[in-house]
Amino acid sequence: MKKLNMAIISLGFILLKANPVFAETVDLSVSRPDIVKITKPDQLLGGLIALIFMVAVLASFIFLVWGGVQWIISGGDKAGVEAAQHRIQAALLGLFIVFVSWAIFTIVGQFLGFSIWNLKIATPF
Length: 125
Fold this sequence. Notes:
With 125 residues, this protein is mainly alpha-helical. Helix content is 67%, strand content 0%.
């Protein structure tokens, strides 16, 4: 625990020592790209599916890193190491499930003739 506290304090001193940077004012206005315009429900559904996949991969990565940090911080404590191993196993299993579901969506889409990212939903009009 002392090593962790010293590392945090040292990092704080390094960050406080940073020299200020004087820069000009920059206009940060960003126009919306054409690809973001959603005019049809099939575009919305494809975008939501892609968003769900991205969030799931990001969550799995965060849990993987969290498990690694938990393992390092446990300091050899058997219960802490075991909890970290379970967290890492769960993160890897979640990542595997996300990639398998993505592969299934892609394969089924190729057999049925559609792409999950560019869905075409029939409209009554």
